[in-house]
Amino acid sequence: HGDEASSKVIGRAIEDIDLPEGTTIGAIVRNDEVLIAHDNTVVEPDDHVILFLVDRKRISEVERLFQVGFSFF
User: How far is the C-alpha of 21 from the C-alpha of 23, rounded, in Å?
Assistant: First the structure.
């Protein structure tokens, strides 16, 4: 959700996203297409990001990373 101004991930390449330790982006679903995630893949609005986490204790950190800021509302 959001846009480049209100999100920590929209408009950024995967290599530039500060993911919690043990978290990997595996793929992005964009429209009806599944894209294998590469370091230079840029996350766009309305993408669905498929993540892999080694430690489920990091889920809340990942959720916070993908939340939009107050400027979105």
Answer: 6
SS3 assignment, position 29: strand
The series of mean pLDDT values per 10 residues for the chain, 73 residues long, is 82 95 96 96 94 94 82 47
Alpha-carbon distance of 38 to 61, in angstroms, equals 22
State the Cα angle at 63 between 68 and 28, rounded to 5°: 85
Q: Where are the beta strands (DSSP E) in 3-71?
A: 23-30, 33-36, 48-53
pTM over 0.85: no
